[in-house]
Design brief:
GMP Synthetase, Chain A, domain 3, Rossmann fold, binds adenosine-5'-diphosphate, 12 strands, nine-stranded mixed β-sheet, alpha/beta
Length: 379
């Protein structure tokens, strides 16, 4: 029989967690923020002195673990805030800051109560087909039975509205100054492209990037989703690092073309995710080989296979190869990605296979993380 999860029950359990100096418990020390419970998912923050967040990560994990033991709790997200007043500002960079990669944990991340897993699709550089791959993988997750959304975080060149045929449309307002996500092919979609003039050149500086992303996550009324695919901005600079730290990512998929140069860039992408402790779910080789649209003959014009070899070398999973094919370009660019417009075709099958493999890896990492947490010994 499962208990109803209550704030009282959560606080009762948290009384077993010792505070930063091992003297009293975190509830008696008044370090616990108001507790939010939403359909079995529990969120709260523990306030700590600035500068001690890293050292106190075991305390955060212990709190998360012990609340996770309560019957009926589906997930727990605990953040460490340096100071309660300033910690509440939504456009603050994450605790530890984007300039402090590797700070680990979920400190300062934006909690996403409705979303099971957030998966980033990234590339080391632009033009490798990252957005085309992201939208088709998202639709493939959906075809595989997962409730899916896509967030276009490529604020420098938002292309998701075009790829799903919603260009020039605007989202509706929801209550509390929030906005509703758009819908395409049954999937929830959000992009900065819906909110700003597509023709206006966008110049973003660090804090603006963070605040744009924050708004698209927090002020959008996302429904209950199994997975939210995030189409990341290309490259591996500060903006990408900031984004990787701002949300609790379940993992990242890296898109690369077979050319060596792109692989060097893909390696940078891998290292970036390593730095911020986000698991790489795998590498996808896009434009892997040329498939003649009339005769179907295959030519390895870019010397295909580089991404697979590279993945093996660095120990990252290889998720699959997508050919360079007119259908993929034409259908995506016309707002009808192949996974939905030609679901029985060979390309849709490739994307569904990639989505299956990526999901398997994401679930395996989740299980591994959960296993680690239960090992933390309590007082
Ligand atoms: P990125 O997001 O990396 O900048 P896009 O997804 O916008 O790249 O793709 C760039 C161009 O390449 C688009 O016109 C897209 O239709 C095309 N493209 C991407 N992948 C393929 C593919 N596998 N076959 C054919 N064209 C592709």
């Amino acid at each position: 029989m499962s208990d109803q999860v209550t704030k009282e029950r959560v606080l009762e359990m948290l009384q077993k967690v010792k505070g930063p100096d091992q003297d009293d418990d975190i509830v008696s020390l008044d370090l616990v923020s108001p507790i939010v419970i939403n359909k079995g998912k529990v969120y709260f923050a523990i306030s700590v002195e600035p500068g001690r967040a890293k050292e106190l990560e075991p305390m955060r994990e212990a709190a998360e673990e012990i609340v996770g033991r309560i019957d009926g709790v589906k997930s727990v997200a605990v953040t460490l805030t340096a100071d309660r007043e300033s910690g509440e500002a939504s456009d603050q960079p994450p605790a530890g800051g984007p300039g402090a990669p590797g700070s680990g944990g979920t400190g300062g991340q934006i909690p996403m109560p409705n979303i099971g897993s957030i998966i980033a699709v990234a590339s080391g550089k632009g033009g490798v087909g990252k957005s085309t791959t992201a939208i088709n993988i998202a639709l493939a997750f959906q075809a595989n039975g997962l409730k899916t959304g896509i967030l276009d975080a490529d604020i420098y060149g938002p292309s998701i509205p075009r790829l799903v045929g919603l260009q020039g449309q605007n989202p509706e307002a929801a209550e509390d100054d929030k906005i509703k996500p758009m819908k395409a092919f049954g999937m929830e979609v959000m992009s900065i492209g819906f909110l700003v003039d597509e023709e206006a050149p966008m110049i973003w500086r660090g804090p603006m990037v963070m605040s744009a992303l924050t708004q698209m996550l927090q002020f959008v009324t996302w429904g209950e989703l199994d997975v939210l695919v995030v189409d990341m901005p290309p490259g591996t600079g500060d903006a990408q690092l900031t984004m990787s730290q701002a949300v609790p990512l379940a993992g990242a998929i890296i898109v690369s073309t077979p050319q060596d140069l792109a692989l060097i860039d893909a390696r940078k992408g891998l290292n970036m995710f390593k730095q911020v402790k986000v698991p790489v779910l795998g590498i996808v080789e896009n434009m892997s080989y040329f498939q003649c649209p009339s005769c179907g003959e295959r030519s390895d014009i870019f010397g295909h296979g580089g991404a697979k070899r590279e993945a093996e070398k660095i120990g990252a999973p290889f998720l699959g190869e997508i050919p360079l094919h007119m259908d993929i370009r034409e259908k995506s660019d016309a707002g009808q990605p192949v996974v939905v417009s030609a679901p029985d075709g060979p390309h849709a099958e490739i994307y569904r296979h990639i989505a299956t493999e990526a999901w398997k890896n994401a679930e395996a990492y989740k299980a591994k993380r959960a296993g680690k947490k239960t090992k933390i010994t309590m007082e």
